[in-house]
Design brief:
Length: about 220
């Protein structure tokens, strides 16, 4: 297990602008959320050392959402840097194909899970990638990756992809809150975790917002 057993089912997308605001939000929310997801803007601003600092300070699983999409030699370097920084999982685009994903998997070994992005939550996710989304889910099984990312804005698609990956794989679903997805709907459809960013960190009271999501989902999960 690279992520913990779900409790609140919330992965916090910490897309805050800088280190100070990141720690401010995490100080309030770390004990409500199940994991933390970092994306490029914050790391480009503060460096990978912030991922390491957050991992040490809050002791929560960390997903490096760097949506890796390159040739194997470059993926190898990215995976080594991210692994050394302390990430527990790394996100990779499915469309790069099996050789490029395998390279990541080899570097990750037993220390980092590989999560394959199937289609984006935004409208463009339906433009090119949707027609291959089931193949990306099959690739997750074939390469024995940790899980997939399925759109929290489209519960029907989560359900369809859960049918392909089976019950053991992790499904993380972005798009909850600010993009209109509902946490309870995503979990009901088969997501293991919902990924929530702005609806928590932009709230005046991030902790209260996280607790609202936690309560919403606890009513639905049996
Ligand atoms: P928010 O809850 O503020 O919309 O943030 C969603 C997070 O998930 C952002 O980091 C975004 O880049 C990411 N994301 C997404 O919204 N849709 C996807 O399909 C894949 C993502 O990684």
């Amino acid at each position: 297990m690279f992520l913990n057993t779900p409790n609140s089912h919330i992965i916090l997308a910490i897309d805050t602008p800088d280190r100070t605001s990141t720690l401010h939000v995490l100080d309030q929310c770390y004990d409500v959320v199940d994991a933390i997801k970092f994306n490029y803007p914050l790391i480009l601003k503060e460096g990978l050392s912030l991922l390491t600092e957050v991992k040490r300070k809050y002791n929560l699983p960390i997903i490096a959402d760097f949506k890796v999409a390159d040739v194997p030699v470059t993926n190898n370097r990215i995976a080594n840097l991210v692994k050394d920084a302390g990430a527990d999982a790394i996100m990779v685009h499915g469309f790069i194909g099996s050789d490029s994903i395998l390279e990541l998997k080899e570097v990750a070994g037993n220390e980092m899970g590989i999560i394959i992005v199937t289609e984006l939550t935004s409208p463009g996710g339906l433009e090119f990638t949707r027609q291959h989304a089931t193949q990306f889910a099959e690739l997750c099984n074939f390469l024995d990756c940790y899980g997939i990312q399925a759109p929290g804005t489209r519960p029907d698609q989560i359900k369809a992809l859960r049918g392909i990956v089976g019950s053991e794989k992790v499904i993380v679903s972005c798009g909850i809150g600010a993009q209109g997805g509902q946490l309870a709907d995503a979990i009901d459809a088969g997501a293991t975790f919902g990924i929530i960013g702005r609806a928590i960190y932009e709230d005046k009271h991030p902790r209260a917002a996280a607790i609202r999501f936690q309560k919403e989902v606890s009513k639905h999960v049996h």
